[in-house]
Write a structure and sequence with these properties.
The protein has 695 residues and is α+β, with helices and mostly antiparallel strands. It is built from 21 helices and 25 strands.
Length: 695
């Protein structure tokens, strides 16, 4: 009897099969003596759409809303149905004794597998592989310590609640807004409050009125000092600033007090996914989606880091014994940093990192024991790995210790201050590349309390208050984490969804709300804009995953909320105007066309939701260069086929027809057919030549 192992994607399945010794390769699975390893392709099963409950829902009508099925059904995704059928055939084999779920060890991974098993009506035992890295060692140990499937039933229930809540709220509100205002308007329980936060920042910027202020700077003895009063250095009246400077310039200032304080900054904890995405955005300008994609390759393909989709920054106590192996694995790329740590037997200085109570489904993202070959990584992979590696190495270095020195001078009743920082122990900052200036004798260290010094070179500087900046991706992620919007695994796709639906756009790395986004936030329900509401939902889902809340009660509340939200939209008297309407009309239904920006350039689409007319606004540019001006030429299709045109030079060139590619199967047939002929060689080129001549 054999176990059916269900992985989330083919690449992971191949690695599991290799470690488990499954050497028989088939189209949809790999087989060995004890295991048959197959895979999903992400989700193979999804919730039924409205039209699967009633065909009338194929047409979007406001009167039909809300759509709330009494029981949500499942359907096989058409595009990947071939793989589902393959798993279905394996499940019916009589030599299969149980199923080992080996999808991603998280809420969504659990849903991927359980929906497949539910659709199969699986009634045999279920076991769970729960590992945090894809190294051979982790896989072998994981299969020795398989957990009973029922241990993850609550996680599955939580995942179902999340999926059904998103379906009910997102689908109904989106359909209601779209049909009422005759324009594609997307809303959801996470994307809408996220958009609201970006809009709130925009409103702060628009409401901002700059104010003029002045600061005073002067040299006192060996120091450059600033005027200060009640911790405020700004003066909002120029006459007052000029008066202060006039009174103090050239006078004697007395060092009233000098404070020295020793401080210590602890080592930063390792990364969770959101913190890593934020740092990668700040350092490299990476989007959250790009960081996750690169990180997934480091996890699955290179096996160099642990499970990415984690919300914890702590490690379990039993991991302390694995630190030496991890240091040795990464030592080839970090010789100078790791050598002293190995000599110290891999002793972790930041003991607080080991905390079982603060580890949820997965611990923090850290390097694995897999041997590092830097040359195998591309530029982006190196950048992300380096962030993770250095944050991990910081745990083995001492805390950063420094001394702050604050001097306060009195002159003519006014206070001038100077501050300096004296580094005592650089500690972990050395490993993070944040080295401060050398520890040298500073001006403040030479001063004594009660001494008098002349005030020289006083000057006034005029400045203006500045508005808050628009949000970067790191800022959005920080706010989503603060309010519990989404999970580490879903935040990147939520942000991309806002861009795709044209409610925000990226400009120089910052988010600008569009006219559509500004209107949408006015139309959508107040309740749905609130991050606090969505955060409560997410907290409830977390409680369900731990068996502390009832999923049925949660979904009943979501159903009531769906009815309320749709009712509010129907009753609303607000108006909307598509921001991108043009003066051109659709040649098919004569409605006005809308202009949309896409990755492929600007396109014109019909504003009538039932009409699917669309065309390019601007001609598509090719990589073909004009022989005269060397600019890219436009691609056109005429009666004679494709051609290239350079408008400024009016140069036209016909496109060459592409030769049809020959696949492996056709290649083998050609070889078999012609290799026996004595008057021709057996190279593929010779065989193709012979085949073409016979045609």
């Amino acid at each position: 009897m054999k176990s059916l192992v269900l992985a989330e994607k083919p690449s992971v399945a191949r690695e599991l099969a290799r470690v488990l010794g499954c050497k028989q390769t088939h189209k949809s699975y790999l087989e060995g003596n004890q295991y048959i390893v197959t895979w999903a392709l992400g989700h193979l099963i999804e919730l039924k759409m409205p039209e699967h409950y009633d065909t009338k829902y194929k047409t979007w009508n406001l009167e039909d809303l809300p759509i709330i099925p009494p029981k949500m059904g499942l359907k096989v995704i058409k595009q990947t149905s071939h793989q589902y059928r393959a798993i279905e055939a394996l499940a019916k084999r009589k030599d299969i004794k149980d199923c080992i779920i080996a999808t991603d060890a998280g809420r969504e991974g659990e849903l991927v597998a359980r929906w497949i098993l539910e659709k199969l009506h699986w009634n045999k035992p279920i076991k769970r592989l729960w590992i945090s890295s894809q190294t051979d060692k982790a896989i072998k140990e994981g299969f020795k310590q398989l957990k009973p499937g029922r241990q993850f039933d609550d996680l599955y229930h939580s995942a179902v609640c999340r999926a059904e809540a998103d379906w009910l709220i997102g689908l109904n509100v989106t359909r209601a807004l779209t049909t009422k205002y005759k324009d594609p308007l997307s809303a959801g329980r996470v994307q809408t409050p996220t958009l609201a936060m970006i809009l709130e920042r925009e409103q702060q910027i628009q409401r901002f009125v700059p104010k003029e202020y002045w600061t005073i700077r002067a040299e006192i003895g060996p120091l450059t000092t600033d005027w200060e009063k009640n911790n405020e250095k700004r003066i909002f009246a120029k006459a007052e600033a000029e008066n202060i400077l006039r009174r103090v310039d050239g006078k004697k200032a007395v060092l009233e007090k000098i404070d020295r304080k020793k401080k210590s900054e602890p080592q930063p904890l390792p990364y969770d996914l959101t913190e890593l995405q934020r740092d990668a955005n700040k350092r490299f300008g990476f989007s959250a989606k790009k960081t996750l994609t690169v990180l997934q390759r480091l996890y699955e393909q290179h096996k160099l880091v642990t499970y990415p989709r984690t919300d914890s920054r702590y490690l379990t106590t039993d991991m302390a014994g694995t630190m030496m192996d991890r240091l040795e694995g990464m030592s080839s790329g970090y010789k100078d940093e790791v050598r002293p740590l190995l000599a110290n037997t891999g002793k972790v200085m930041a003991k607080r990192v080991f905390n079982n109570e603060k580890v949820t489904d997965h611990h923090a993202i850290i390097p694995t024991e897999q041997r590092l070959n830097i040359s195998d990584l591309d530029s982006d992979e190196r950048k992300i790995y380096d962030l993770i590696a250095r944050r991990f190495l910081a745990l083995f270095y001492p805390a950063y210790e420094y001394e702050t020195i604050h001097a306060s001078f009195k002159v003519e009743g006014e206070t001038f201050t100077a501050k300096e920082t004296n580094v005592l122990t650089l500690g972990f900052k050395k490993i993070l590349g944040k080295e401060d200036s050398d520890n040298e004798i500073t001006g403040l260290q030479k001063l004594n309390q009660g001494q008098a010094y002349s005030v020289k070179n006083g000057m006034i500087q005029q400045k203006w208050t500045e508005p808050p900046e628009r949000m970067k991706e790191a800022d959005v992620l920080a706010q989503m984490e603060k309010f519990g919007l989404g999970t580490p695994a879903t935040r990147a796709e939520i942000i991309e969804r806002l861009v795709e639906t044209e409610v925000v756009e990226r400009q120089n790395g910052r988010f600008h709300p569009t006219k559509k986004g500004k209107q949408l936030i006015e139309l959508v329900n107040d309740e749905l804009k609130s991050p606090e509401l969505t955060a409560k939902w997410e907290q409830e889902l977390e409680r369900i995953s731990k068996g502390k809340a009832d999923p049925k009660v949660f979904l009943q509340r979501i159903r009531r909320q769906t009815e309320q939200l749709v009712s509010e939209i129907k009753a609303s008297d607000k108006s909307y105007r598509a921001h991108n309407l043009t003066g051109s009309k659709c040649p098919e239904c004569h409605s006005f066309l809308k202009e949309r920006n896409t990755k492929e350039g600007k396109i014109l689409v019909c504003s009538n939701l039932e009409c699917h007319y669309r065309r390019r606004k601007d001609p598509k540019l090719s990589n073909r260069r004009c022989p005269q001006c060397h600019k890219k030429m436009e691609v056109h299709e005429g009666k004679a086929g494709l051609y290239f045109q350079c408008r400024p030079c009016n140069v036209v060139e016909k496109a060459e027809e592409k030769k049809k590619a020959i696949n492996k199967r056709e290649e083998r047939k050609l070889v078999q057919k012609y290799s026996k002929k004595e008057d021709f060689g057996t190279s593929l080129g010779d065989l193709l030549k012979q085949a073409l001549e016979e045609k």
